[in-house]
Amino acid sequence: MTRREGLEKVEREILQEKAATLGRAGERLEAALATTRALGEALDGEREPARRAALLREYEAARRQAATARLMLLIQREAIGFRQHRDVDRQFPEPPRRS
Q1: Is 28 exposed, middle or buried (0-12, 13-18, 19+ CB in 10 A)?
Q2: In contact, 42 and 19? CB cutoff 8 Å
Q3: Can you tell me whether residue 84 is helix, strand or coil?
Q4: Distance (Å, rounded) from C-alpha 73 to C-alpha 85?
Q5: Which residues fall within 8 angstroms of residue 2, CB to CB, at 6 or more apart?
Q6: Residue 69 predicted with pLDDT over 90
Q7: 43, 56 in Cβ contact below 8 A?
Q8: CA 25, CA 49: separation in Å to the nearest integer?
Q9: What is the pLDDT of residues 33-68, one digit of tens each?
Q10: Higher pLDDT residue, 99 or 24?
Q11: What is the three-class DSSP state of 47?
């Protein structure tokens, strides 16, 4: 293997790792949003005040986790050179605050 071939191999491995890391960040965000969405649906159907209050606390905690996961995705995107995040905004909208 020549030096150039070795360098190209390392560069491919770096790109693969960047892509994998970005994919994992997206998967974490999708999972956090799914949890938040499920809690929101449960909250919509709950009428018992104590259970509703507990679900609201769980929802807000999940919403914060989703916001953190979204931030991690944006950081990963910026680390590989993506500076525009409109696609992320469209695909992964921030869950609303609930009361």
Answers
A1: middle
A2: no
A3: coil
A4: 10
A5: none
A6: yes
A7: yes
A8: 35
A9: 999 999 999 999 999 999 999 999 999 999 999 999
A10: 24
A11: coil
- Both ends of the chain: CA-CA distance in Å? 63
Q: What is the DSSP letter of 81?
A: T
Q: Which token pair is 14?
A: 């770096």
Other CB atoms closer than 10 Å to residue 52's CB: what's the count? Answer: 15
Show me where the domains of the chain are located: 3-89
Work out the average pLDDT over 14-23: 91
Q: Give per-residue burial for 60-69: e unless 16+ CB within 10 Å, then b.
A: bebbebbeeb
